[in-house]
Amino acid sequence: MATQKSEPSAASRDDLIDILTTAAEGQLRALRALRRRQDRPERKPGKRRSNIAIVEDILRSSPGPLHVSQILSQAQERYQVHISRESLVSALTKKVLDRHTFCRVARNTFDLLERAPS
């Protein structure tokens, strides 16, 4: 007795085509995602520093208090970071009121609390 191969039914053939189409579309999405990821600029290694940490570093390296304009320009020069003047003054004012890290020595001029005159 010879075995006969039967042709797949039209329904099972359509199901197979649907499965293969779905798999190919998934592979295409994955390849496009890889291309998008490759086109993005690489991040610098390490964590991003907070604005307050940047200000603290700037003040630690300065011989004395700095006006907010000086702080902003040094943040741009040294860290290539643009900080909003209003948000920086607001954040520093909160730290001053909490007596945490910073003190105000004149209008919009800040220093480290640890070296402020008593």
Kindly describe this structure.
With 118 residues, this protein is mainly alpha-helical. It has a domain at 51-115: Arc Repressor Mutant, subunit A (Orthogonal Bundle), CATH 1.10.10. Helix content is 56%, strand content 9%. It has helices at 10-39, 51-61, 68-79, 85-97, and strands at 66-67, 102-106, 109-112. A three-stranded antiparallel beta sheet has the order 1-3-2. The longest helix is centred in the first third of the chain and has 30 residues, at 10-39. 8% of the residues are buried.
Largest sheet: 3 strands, antiparallel
Note the total helix count: 4
Q: Which term fits the overall shape?
A: rod-shaped
CATH class of the domain at 51-115: Mainly Alpha
Read across the widest sheet, the strand sequence of neighbours is 1-3-2
Strand content: 5-15%
Distance between the termini: 108 Å
> Structural class of the helix and strand makeup?
mainly alpha
How much helix, percentage-wise, in residues?
55-70%
Mean pLDDT: 85
- In the CATH hierarchy, the third-tier topology of the domain at 51-115 is known as Arc Repressor Mutant, subunit A
**What's the count of strands?**
3
What is this entry, summarized?
The protein is mostly helical and 118 residues long. It has 4 helices and 3 strands. A 3-stranded antiparallel sheet has the order 1-3-2.
